[in-house]
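Appendix B, example 12.
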Amino acid sequence: MAEPHTAPPFQRAKSGQLREALDRLEGLFVDGLRHGFFHYSIAGESATAVKRQLVIRAGKSHKFTILEDEVSR
């Protein structure tokens, strides 16, 4: 029997810092494609046992603090 399909966490994120980070990434990506040239970097690290820091560098830096429970397993 096939297991039920579940959407990945990034598609289930409706609000919070995870949603904001994903929306920012999408916007930067589309803007870069429109412009024709772009270079971005993304870095992540554990800030505490329940917080993750995500930094997107794309001309200027965008920093997000994502709680562990926003990223369900």
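Strands lie at 41-46, 51-58, 60-67. The longest strand covers residues 51-58.
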